[in-house]
Amino acid sequence: MNRTKLTGVLVLAGVFLLGALAGGAGLFAWQQRSNADELMGGPTEWMQHRRLAALGRHLGLSSAQREQIHQIMLRHRAEREKLLDDLNDRCGSTLRDHKTRVDGEIRAVLSPEQQAQFDRLQAKQRRRFPFGQPPMMGRGGPGRGGMGRGGLGRGGPPTP
């Protein structure tokens, strides 16, 4: 293969690679935006959206059934949010205090370099999950069960 052909093949491969990277970055950005849009409605709305989608998949709901179930969820949303807020008021600070104690004990075991990395991971988690811990969605879902609202409700990020 002569030098001109090799240059052409390398340029073509480079353009293909850059296109694939740009496409991947675009897909990632779109997914992050989609996740952020779901969360902007609040943890309760996000959880209801996820629950309705799961029911639709598992039960084969018609569009009329989806709409009826959506209306049922909307009708009960305020009561559910009040119950979850009450639960958060009773347990939220206790859970944050527990997390702070556990994190402190974990940090004490780590080397200074590991502590710095641990702190960066904690900061990243607070940015990714502004309502507290990742959403708890029952057996098999992220968090493996729990309070169902990100663990700490709307009180903001947990203290590190």
Overall geometry: flat
Order of helices and strands: HHHH
Distance between the termini: 60 Å
Strand content: under 5%
Largest sheet: none
Total strands: 0
Which structural class do you get from the secondary structure elements? mainly alpha
Keyword list:
160 residues, 74% helix
What is this entry, summarized?
This protein has four helices and no strands. With about 160 residues, it is mainly α.
Account of the 3D structure:
The chain has helices at 3-40, 43-59, 63-109, 112-128. The chain has 160 residues and is mainly alpha-helical. It is flat, with a radius of gyration of 23 Å. Residues 135-160 have low confidence and may be disordered.
Which secondary structure elements does this structure contain, and how are they paired or packed?
Layout: H1 3-40, H2 43-59, H3 63-109, H4 112-128
Helix pairs in contact: 2-3
